[in-house]
């Protein structure tokens, strides 16, 4: 079991995506009547988070589970276990405080401009006792006037006010309370008040986690209209520009499709938006591309179309699976730069999946190294690459060729090959090939990820 | 006399739309024990060149001019019968994605035995051929006990080693490896490249590595040739090409490549795309994308000129000249 890298006492203020204990097992049957089933542990309990406007890299060799993880995050696959939380841009949460003590919380649905439309959810303050329950009930009865005050404040805001609604002082039943946006509440740090006993501390943790749910959706378990809504937030760019575009559709149809599916805009509005998007991805003049077919375009141009299609509905999170590995080198950098520009423009986060560590170094602020379905190391890219701690990461990095003939590389020899992902024993997945393996590694389960400083996590008993 | 010398080679493809100028005026040499790396992007002509060396060009391709001198003989003047004796025994090739072209219904060992017997004929009995296969397996780092397995029982890396063994089966003097490790994971790639280099040194073979990956080329080649749009635009000792490129395309390619070592710097892009070789641009084929292009570049094809020692480049305005 991998412990979560962010134990609840240090809840991060704003994560865009949080993956918790994610697993994907594929059955390997020996026929319909097989007595006991075997499973490929493609993704075997991984947890990580991605911040807004961050590029998070997932690196590893074939079979490590990175592509499967990407598919899970866009719901091309459903997880076997685990949760995938994404910040729901439609919901805004607030903590209700009385004299600095939280007594409840609520969330509201907001429109594109951040204006509250209606109440989403209401919950009580921390604690499981009767008092907390009573507090929650009272809050539910009083929530309408609270909401009205929120709306009024939002209306009074200057639309260019980046800070948004902010903390609001309200009066309710003669009590003076304040509504604090959840992000601001969490920013200040959330250690349990010292006066609490153990049970109260546990209640506090649970309450904090519930608080987060007010603004996040667990999209591992959604379907139907929620899924459609989810597809506005999360999109994917695939590796093969020759296979990911429908050859029978024009470029316009391809890029406009997400708008059509989500019923956004009229035909005329869509044409305008598609033209703008094509311009933005460097396909200029857009008119000369709108009614061509994919086979008339080069690989690099096709990938730009794929990017335009992914970006047109302004997602907050894009999974990119080796988007440049099938392109020529001189074209690659153009695509990578385009992705970075769009990230700035639209405030997007990327999960960047690649086997190429040099590309990961260039594109990603943080990376996670996967091996046989597990994350073995994770942290700021430069740290992980220049100072790898896990023996697998060290071997991987030592094997990367360097385009500089004056540099002498010392490859680390690893015995054997990657073992089978079918029903692996619970111990460290790297045991058979590890130069550091000890008795302890034989006996214990796969090591949990631990922070070795500066957000650099390693899953190893011998580091 | 060089082991292999290519002189002013020109190759065209006949297509419905016209003739593709696939390789134009390419010249280079290869010595025994030397590793030459050919770098270029898709469409630059490197694979066409490799196929020409083996005289395995497709039906619609033809050699317009030039010579391919192997151990002093011009391969282009040989009959098909004579060429058959050169192929695999003189020059052998590991094709792109060859690991996917092993026959799935035959055992791996048997496929190599077939190659040996086809080309060495009566010289090898089955037993001798089998012994040779065992030796080859040891040479490429495969367990000889797996000779009787089928290709699907091998991993990608193992299949690639098997294909290399097949290419070595008739003791060629030259091996051409076209993208030998693309599609393999980096740890396996590293092992195979090091093994291939050891074999080269051990057998004193000439090796031509073809790749789009300049990092791989930097590590395994003594000499590097850069191809663009059918031309050889620069060639020289590896260290010099990387530290002191003279052709703007070479320099552009170097700075478009990210590395995990060294300072983390801004990557550059080369604007535009490689030209259509049905109607290549006049003069220097790189001029539409070159920031230094002037009138002469648009009119006259620059010749491959010597700079320092073995370092040559074809440019009217070479960098750091």
Can you lay out the helices and strands and say which pair or pack?
The complex is a heterodimer of chains A (463) and B (321).
Chain A: E1 17-28, E2 38-50, E3 55-59, H1 66-73, E4 81-87, E5 91-98, E6 101-110, E7 116-124, H2 130-156, E8 168-172, E9 175-181, H3 182-187, H4 198-213, E10 216-218, H5 224-233, E11 234-237, H6 251-261, H7 267-280, H8 287-290, H9 299-311, E12 317-321, H10 329-346, E13 349-354, H11 357-363, E14 366-371, E15 374-380, H12 381-386, H13 391-398, H14 439-443, E16 450-451, E17 457-458
Chain B: E1 4-15, E2 18-30, E3 35-39, H1 46-53, E4 61-70, E5 73-74, H2 80-86, E6 91-94, H3 108-120, H4 126-140, H5 156-168, E7 174-178, H6 186-203, E8 206-211, H7 214-220, E9 223-228, E10 231-237, H8 238-243, H9 248-255, H10 295-299, E11 305-306, E12 312-313
Parallel strand pairs in B: 3-8, 3-9, 6-7, 7-8
Antiparallel strand pairs in B: 1-2, 1-4, 4-5, 9-10, 10-12, 11-12
Helix pairs in contact in B: 3-4, 4-5, 5-6
What's the architecture of the largest domain in chain A in CATH terms? 3-Layer(aba) Sandwich
Strand order of the largest sheet of chain B: 6-7-8-3-9-10-12-11
Gyration radius from CA atoms of chain B, angstroms: 20 Å
> What profile does the largest beta sheet of chain B have?
8 strands, mixed
What does this structure look like?
The complex is a heterodimer of chains A (463) and B (321). Helices cover 33% and strands 24% of the residues of chain A. With 463 residues, chain A is of the alpha+beta class. Chain A has an eight-stranded mixed β-sheet with strand order 11-12-13-3-14-15-17-16, sandwiched between helices. In chain A, helix 6 runs parallel beside helix 9 (299-311), helix 7 (267-280) crosses helix 9 and helix 9 packs parallel to helix 10. The two termini of chain A are 18 Å apart. In chain A, 43% of the residues are buried. Residues 1-12 of chain A have low confidence and may be disordered. By secondary structure, chain B is an alpha/beta fold. Chain B contains ten helices and twelve strands. Chain B has helices at residues 46-53, 80-86, 108-120, 126-140, 156-168, 186-203, 214-220, 238-243, 248-255, 295-299; strands at 4-15, 18-30, 35-39, 61-70, 73-74, 91-94, 174-178, 206-211, 223-228, 231-237, 305-306, 312-313. An eight-stranded mixed β-sheet of chain B has the order 6-7-8-3-9-10-12-11, sandwiched between helices. In chain B, a hairpin with a 2-residue loop joins strand 4 (61-70) and strand 5. The longest helix of chain B is centred in the middle third of the chain and has 18 residues, at 186-203. The model of chain B has no long low-confidence stretch (mean pLDDT 92). Classes of the chains: A alpha+beta (463), B alpha/beta (321). Chain A binds chain B through residues 61-62, 298, 300, 328-334, 336-337, 355, 357-359, 361-362, 382, 385, 395-397, 399-407, 409, 411, 414, 417, and chain B through 41-42, 155-157, 185-187, 189-190, 193-194, 212-216, 218-219, 238-239, 242-243, 252-254, 256-262, 264, 267-270, 273-274.
